[in-house]
Amino acid sequence: MKRPVWIDTDCGVDDAMALLCACALKDIEIVGVSAGVGTTSQENTFRNTRNVLALAGRKDIPVYPGSKTAWIEPYMPAPAFHGEDGLGGAVIPESDAPVETEYAWDAFYKAAKKYEGELTVVTVGALTDLATAIVKYPDLPKYIKEVDIMGGAIDGGNTTMASEANIRRDPHAAQCLFKSGIPVVMFGLDVTEQVRLTPADREEIFRKNTSVTRLMEESIQIPLSTNLRQGLDTYTLHDVCPVLYLSKPELFEGKKAAVYVETQSPLTMGKTISDVYALTDDKFPDKNTLVMLKADREKAVSFFKELMLSYE
Ligand code: RIB
Ligand code: CA
Q1: Eight-class DSSP state of 94
Q2: 165 ligand 1 Cβ < 6 A
Q3: What is the pLDDT of residue 277?
Q4: Is there a contact between 128 and 173 (Cβ–Cβ < 8 Å)?
């Protein structure tokens, strides 16, 4: 049996690439996808997710509507990295797949029960949908094998000096996941920032003209101009990392540690605090997170290219 996987996304530019990579993996079965607020509104992320899956030829994968707001924090879109619509203005056909109306957390709980503890969850947006399911269904943790998140940072941040966007958007939900006892694999900025596409990598991908490479080329222009204004000509594959890990865990190295989220201080709100570099602090007893710290950049980028170029 293929490994059952659920993906929760706030479908922006790198989320789209992550979904396309996931659809190209041969050894997983994507049993459901949920789309919540994040890079842009929930309405946009829901539409983008449906359209990206249709582009991948996977209209059969159900997409469920996730949260329209974070639990407490205000809406924090990122138009400089994803455009106003989440896909950097790239135009792709509207999916005509049936529209699911069941809420993400309810559909997700049903799937988790159905797979009896074998379901792996990949989250590439805020943790709101997953944490809502954890609160609504207290027996949920025992049905989840592992949650692979793109989020957080042991050092630094990208939304504020202290926080990464997916955790900053809903720190309370993130803290709920880290405290739930579910095994978490954390792909924070510490590792995702190592997996960057150079101009040469992008050219190699764009030489093959398919609807998938065209979407990538069009959607990447806004974040690339933002990066260039900051002196960077690379593009970081944040959300792609936990997807690559599903099939090739050997691309990443990490350490088991405890992770907590700052939910009080206005200055460091959303910071992920970990004892990863000092595993003896007794304030940090719950070492249920594998914090990824190192990626094999060459192999990860080459696997990414292989998956993106597998579409005709
Ligand atoms: O910090 C990177 C994360 O923020 C990614 O998930 C990206 O899609 C944005 O939401
Ligand atoms: Ca994302």
Answers
A1: P
A2: yes
A3: 87
A4: yes
- Give the mean pLDDT of the chain: 97
| Dihedrals phi, psi of 145, to nearest 5 degrees | -75, -45
For residue range 26-51, what is the model confidence (pLDDT) as tens digits? Answer: 999 999 999 999 999 999 999 999 99
Is 238 annotated in the active site?
yes
Q: How far apart are CA 104 and CA 71, in angstroms?
A: 15
Ligand 1 atom having least distance to the Cα of 14: 8
Q: Is 40 in the pocket of ligand 1 (CB under 6 A)?
A: no
The yes-or-no verdict on residue 74 having pLDDT over 80 is yes
Cα(70) to centroid(ligand 2), Å:
14
- Cα–Cα nearest to 34, from 138, 112, 141, 140: 112
Q: Given the residues 50, 82, 238, 271, select the one marked as catalytic.
A: 238
Q: Kindly indicate whether the domain formed by 3-308 is annotated with CATH number 3.90.245.10.
A: yes
Query: Residue 282: pLDDT above 80?
Result: no
Q: How far lies 31's CA from each of 34, 148, 241, in Å?
A: 10, 16, 19
Ligand nearest 158 Cα, by number?
1
Residue 39 alpha carbon, nearest atom of ligand 1: 10
Q: Among 124, 231, 234, 120, which Cα is nearest to 187's?
A: 124
The answer to whether residue 228 scores a pLDDT higher than 90 is yes
Ligand with smallest separation from the Cα of 13: 1
The reported pTM is 0.98
Query: Which pLDDT score, from 0 to 100, does residue 280 have?
Result: 73
| pLDDT confidence band for 273 (50 / 70 / 90) | very high
- For ligand 2, a single-atom ion, which residues have Cβ within 5 Å? 10, 15, 124-125, 239
The whole-number pLDDT of residue 149 equals: 98
Residue pair 181/147 in contact (Cβ under 8 Å)? The answer is: no
Retrieve residue 27's tokens: 């050894």
Nearest Cα neighbor of 187 from 303, 292, 274 is 292
